[in-house]
Amino acid sequence: MIELKAEQLEIIQKMSVFQVRAGMPPTEARILALLLVSDRTELTFDEIRETLNTSKSAVSTALNTLVLRNKVESITIPGDRKRYFKHQLKNWNSNAKDGLEKLLSVNQLLKEILAVRTSETEDFNQDLKNVIAFIDFMQVELVQVFEKWNKQQQKENN
Amino acid sequence: MIELKAEQLEIIQKMSVFQVRAGMPPTEARILALLLVSDRTELTFDEIRETLNTSKSAVSTALNTLVLRNKVESITIPGDRKRYFKHQLKNWNSNAKDGLEKLLSVNQLLKEILAVRTSETEDFNQDLKNVIAFIDFMQVELVQVFEKWNKQQQKENN
DNA sequence: CTTTTGGTTCTGAATTAAAAGAACTAAAAT
DNA sequence: ATTTTAGTTCTTTTAATTCAGAACCAAAAG
Predict the structure, then answer these.
(1) B76 touches strand C (CB under 7 A)
(2) Which residues of chain A make contact with B119, given a CB cutoff of 8 A?
(3) Looking at B52, B87, B122, which one is the last position of a domain?
(4) Same domain, B66 and B135
(5) Mind listing the pLDDT tens digit of every residue in chain B (158 residues)?
(6) φ, ψ for residue B76 (rounded to 5)?
(7) Is residue A1, in this structure, part of any structural domain at all?
(8) Does the CB of A113 have a partner CB in chain B at under 8 Å?
């Protein structure tokens, strides 16, 4: 059972509200937030369960999907039976990238729609073409932004 | 009642599955998709209700939230009592921008977390700083990307 | 003024999602 | 060999969404 200051509890609260709004299940959101604020960055299954006062089953499934989604890594320490769970901060970047790509993949459908539309509605079709062009543009630009970031990071590590 | 080809029905299906996965309620998703594929781009309440075979209450609440979220606009034609509903394609761009900004606003919370963290966990804190720096970077870059797009559009309209 | 139209709002009912609880399992410890 | 540990998986319960159906309402038409 991890002792948390009032501040830390508040942040867990705020952070998980935020993530839940974005579509994440509450237990997952609270685990992620706990792993961000906790003084120890590697917590056991039971520490998480006790601290968040949640059932084993809920913690188990939440942790498994978090590990699957590369949001959390599970660490085993030789000679210690328990697994330790740690927030995968390092993957934030690439998770963000994946998320954006998924958002932009709607463009495929928009192109299908354009192909099927009547040619009568010129203005509407032009607006649709603009949206498609915009998303295509974003896709290209975002790749460049990510590349720029990676280069900048490499420099700093010299 | 709008007549739809098989193709159009399929796209409504695919598109709404996509949007529902992203967290949108089914009726809203189907209305949006219908307004994208339909040959007529402005449909009445009852055309929507009949075509999607849905209850008045469901259509009413869905349309109202869609209008509220600037996804659909409602048009009134003088001398016609009915309202016509039309997909707000033009707002796609700014809706996307708002969505991204909201995503990036998580950074405020991450900064709070960093401020509250113990200084013992140097590596973790450094990773957290990197994430924060990354999001700050994205924020700046995205503004530029949007500006670039807008300029490019202005040019084309000359 | 009464009726019709074009919706809205207010219950439920049905579905879905999330969490709890309990039974289970594999590995490790005794 | 039995028990404990660390967690998983299955079933049930609870809670939240979503939709339908009916009553309702305001503006326009007759």
Answers:
(1) no
(2) none
(3) B87
(4) no
(5) 899 999 999 999 999 999 999 999 999 999 999 999 999 999 999 999 999 999 999 999 999 999 999 999 999 998 898 999 999 999 999 999 999 999 999 999 999 999 999 999 999 999 999 999 999 999 999 999 999 999 999 998 87
(6) -115, 135
(7) no
(8) yes
Which of A17, A117, A74 lies closest to B37 in space, CA to CA?
A117
Mark yes or no for CB contact A117/B39 under 8 Å. Answer: yes
Among B89, B134, B142, select the one facing A128 at the smallest CB separation: B89
Query: Is A141 near chain B, with CB under 8 Å?
Result: yes
**B87 near B48, Cβ under 8 Å?**
no
Best CA proximity match to B149, nearest among B94, B89, B88? B94
Decide: CB of B65 under 7 A of nucleic strand C. no
Same-domain pairing of A74 and A110: no
Which residues of chain B lie closer than 8 angstroms to A41, CB-CB? 121, 124
Q: Tell me the C-alpha distance between B2 and B34, whole Å.
A: 10
Euclidean distance between CA atoms A13 and B5, whole angstroms: 49
Structural domain harbouring A46: 6-87
Query: For residue B1, is it within any domain?
Result: no
Place of tokens 């809706």: B95
Nucleotide nearest the Cα atom of B44 (by C1'): C6
CA distance A23 to chain B (A): 7
